[in-house]
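Saturday, quiet lab. Running sequence design on the structure tokens for the scaffold JK sent over.
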């Protein structure tokens, strides 16, 4: 049997190109997405080998849907070699929070809580896989880290003491720290939670299971639909700025290839690592293990995040 990878959010951008790259390497890709016709179209357009993927419905914003997805995946009868938590929403112009069906602020619910539940449920499948090399990869981003240039632009992420999570994270609460709603910060906070989740998974399960837990920042993929909810001017300006001024721009193909490498290549089998690339825009730019932000390496905060998230998704 081909090694099987589940990737969330494969209709566009990084996830789509990661799926393409892994399918071309002979992996079987379970494309987990919420828009099936869009996915069918995208897979056709990129000529992804038909025998190497299936499309399964998931709405990461809904805990019920995540649970149903896991059931459906198990019904396929495939053993799981890798999971990539990639899907995300970014709603920078939003003034009032949107809510998930479970009542949580939507970007945190989609980017973090949905993936937190998915990772915890599929841990069992990764454990049961006969493959000696199983991996769980969560997409990070430079904006999670105020120690880096790309992370210095306000508003900065701040989980505080997770007061918002502690209080149940439902109306009128909108943010992890319980403070005022701020859509850009909500995205960045969710990415801090993604990195913390990877590190907690590593701490809790690497030794006992042998599973490799990693995160990566593939570079600034400035022209993906992630920015579709931004001002049209920003959508034009941002890729130009990243290509010509910061040099941080990375194509969707290259970003997808980097995800595929972290999933499949032997040199990325280092659990607990957060991978980044020097000379980001260059294909030969070297990867290295990068230190994550102070909040994302704070073990106490990681444990709190885990405990509260487990309650919010109904695992505790
Ligand atoms: P895209 O918007 O192109 O892709 C996001 C994917 O997530 C889409 O397939 C989208 O599906 C899916 N998605 C969103 N909400 C849900 C949901 N509720 N259920 C299921 N799927 C959902 O963005 P990118 O490719 O840029 O982003 C992918 C990842 O890379 C994210 O984790 C992001 O944080 C990270 N990243 C991106 C960077 C960049 O510069 N672009 C830089 C660093 C990290 P649909 O088509 O249905 O909306």
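Result came back. Writing it out in full:
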């Amino acid at each position: 049997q081909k090694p099987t990878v589940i990737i969330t959010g494969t209709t566009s951008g990084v996830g789509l190109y990661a799926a393409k790259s892994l399918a071309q390497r002979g992996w079987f890709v379970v494309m987990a997405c919420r828009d099936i016709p869009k996915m069918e179209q995208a897979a056709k357009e990129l000529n992804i080998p038909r025998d190497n993927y299936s499309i399964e419905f998931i709405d990461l914003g809904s805990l019920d849907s995540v649970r149903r997805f896991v059931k459906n995946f198990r019904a396929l009868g495939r053993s799981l070699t890798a999971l990539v938590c990639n899907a995300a929403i970014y709603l920078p112009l939003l003034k009032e929070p949107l809510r998930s069906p479970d009542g949580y602020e939507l970007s945190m619910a989609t980017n973090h809580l949905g993936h937190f539940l998915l990772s915890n449920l599929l841990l069992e499948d990764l454990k049961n896989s006969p493959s000696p090399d199983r991996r769980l990869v969560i997409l990070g981003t430079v904006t999670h880290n105020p120690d880096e240039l790309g992370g210095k632009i306000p508003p900065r992420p701040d989980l505080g003491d997770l007061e918002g999570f502690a209080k149940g994270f439902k109306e009128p609460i909108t943010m992890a720290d319980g403070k005022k709603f701020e859509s850009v910060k909500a995205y960045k906070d969710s990415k801090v939670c993604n990195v913390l989740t990877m590190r907690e998974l590593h701490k809790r399960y690497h030794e006992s299971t042998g599973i490799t837990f990693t995160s990566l920042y593939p570079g600034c993929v400035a022209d993906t639909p992630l920015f579709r909810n931004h001002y049209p001017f920003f959508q034009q300006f941002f890729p130009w700025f990243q290509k010509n001024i910061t040099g941080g721009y990375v194509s969707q193909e290259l970003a997808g290839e980097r995800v595929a490498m972290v999933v499949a290549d032997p040199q990325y089998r280092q659990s607990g690592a957060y991978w980044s690339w020097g000379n980001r825009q260059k294909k030969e730019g070297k990867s290295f293990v990068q230190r994550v932000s102070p909040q994302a390496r704070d073990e106490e905060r990681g444990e709190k995040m885990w405990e509260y998230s487990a309650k919010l998704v109904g695992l505790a």
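Notes for JK: The longest strand covers residues 28-33. The radius of gyration is 18 Å. Ask whether to fix the surface positions before the next round.
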